[in-house]
Design a protein that fits this description.
With 430 residues, this protein is α/β, with parallel strands linked by helices. It has 8 helices and 24 strands. The strands form 6 sheets. Strands 2, 3, 4, 7, 8 and 9 form a 6-stranded parallel beta sheet that branches. Bound molecules: zinc ion.
Length: 430
């Protein structure tokens, strides 16, 4: 029996590694952490202590860093302040109703301690974002019950988590303040620096700040540390607890497939099979650009999404953040149309007009000799809306194409002569 378990574990382990790798087609790479940061940090604050809102929150806001508040709903709470914090990107999550030990209760009581704060928080904030819980006294109780209501639970084993925690229902956190192991600026910085070396996730657990209350941290010790992490986004991705959980789960489940690879356009699908009402945050991805591309833009659903190009040992690599299952992603070669003439066509003569257009576009080009030319118009999904293939005589040629009913879509036209393709973006208007 023991042997069986042993082999099963090894099998699961191998399967996980290969399964993940196979789902992301080369040469795409998914960042371990958003923005290709080397580690992730979450700052979690428990028990509704009022100075968390009056002292800590302004410190984080000034540096545009996000916090997580784990609320005990029977304790008094400034709901207006929590709602405003939530609207500003901070997280409000659950820490039970009564702050009792989850290990000492009946299933019925535990279900109430799980469900009731979630409903209260979602109702008070007007959203459905309460997906994580922090266990009172770090005692999870029946994990199977907890996982019926939450996607993750924070415990406090005191170590920096790996990039994919062993168990998202038992995530380790590190206790801070006078009763914890992390007190000074140096303690904080040493801890987060250790997360870099393992590409890990560091979850800090706070209670009081500067005042009375359990295990207060000194704001004068915390402030220089926050300035340090804010100044080093390449090293640290600072995110709420649940946004980090969302990132990890999507990163490990993502499926990337290249659909189209034209000389001026690359199309890929980026999806996962997770619950999209929860797992809907951007994931950082990179792909090397073809060697003759200088610049590129990324579009999804006809909207440009932010991207930047980095130099990777002389090769250009484009990085972008994309929400999976939100439409195919297009990497468009941009800048001037760098059309290289070939033996058949003078691409410098290629004109598409008017563009933007209303009902009709004209494609004009110059052929050096009699050739078959194919011309297509495709939409963002790669669907052909129009296509013509015809033998043209040498000299200046024109194709007029009526296109109606695509006013909110970005279209592309592709001209192809003897296997040489060129692409141009078309912008339909009202
Ligand atoms: Zn607590």
């Amino acid at each position: 029996m023991q042997k069986f378990t042993h082999y099963s574990l090894i099998f699961c382990f191998i399967y996980t590694i290969i399964g993940t790798a196979q789902n992301v087609e080369s040469p795409y790479e998914v960042a371990i952490w958003k923005g290709f940061s080397k580690s992730a940090i979450s700052y979690t604050w428990d028990d509704n202590i009022s100075e968390q809102l009056t002292v800590a929150l302004p410190m984080y806001d000034a540096l545009n860093l996000k916090m997580t508040f784990f609320l005990t709903t029977s304790f008094s709470a400034n709901w207006d302040a929590y709602k405003e914090a939530s609207e500003n990107g901070h997280e409000i999550a659950a820490h039970s109703i009564s702050h009792s030990n989850f290990g000492d209760m009946t299933d019925e009581t535990l279900i109430n301690e799980l469900l009731n704060p979630q409903e209260t928080i979602n109702a008070k904030l007007g959203n459905n974002k309460c997906i994580s819980i922090a266990y009172p006294y770090c005692v999870s109780g029946d994990i199977n019950l907890v996982s019926n209501y939450y996607v993750s639970g924070r415990s406090c084993q005191g170590y920096v988590e790996s990039q994919t925690p062993n168990d998202l229902m038992q995530v380790s956190s590190i206790s801070c303040g006078t009763e914890g192991t992390v007190k000074t600026t140096e303690d904080f910085n040493t801890t987060v620096d250790s997360a870099i070396t393992t590409n890990g996730w560091c979850v800090f657990l706070f209670h009081a700040i500067d005042g009375s209350g359990w295990s207060p941290v000194d704001s004068s010790e915390l402030q220089p540390h926050l300035e340090y992490v804010a100044a080093n986004p390449n090293k640290f991705w600072i995110a709420t607890y649940s946004d980090t959980v969302r990132y990890i789960t999507q990163r490990d489940a993502i499926i990337i497939q290249e659909i189209l690879n034209k000389s001026d356009l690359i199309q890929c699908s980026i999806t996962h099979n997770l619950d999209q009402t929860i797992y809907n945050t951007p994931i950082s991805i990179q792909r090397p650009l073809p060697s003759d591309w200088e610049e590129a833009t990324i579009t999804q659903n006809g909207t440009e999404i932010p991207s930047h190009i980095i130099d990777d040992n002389g090769a250009k690599v484009i990085r972008f953040d994309v929400i999976p299952n939100n439409g195919d992603v297009f990497i468009n070669k941009s800048g001037e149309l760098s059309l290289e003439d070939n033996e058949y066509i003078t691409y410098s003569s290629l004109k598409v007009y008017p563009n933007p257009f209303k009902e009709k576009v004209t494609l004009e080009f110059f052929l050096k000799e009699k050739k078959n030319v194919s011309f297509s118009i495709i939409n963002q999904s790669g669907k052909k809306l129009y296509t013509i293939e015809k033998k043209f005589y040498s000299g200046k040629q024109k194709i007029k194409v009526p296109i109606n009913g695509y006013k909110n879509e970005v279209l592309f036209c592709i001209i192809e002569v003897d296997g040489h393709q060129k692409l141009k973006k078309l912008i339909p208007t009202n």
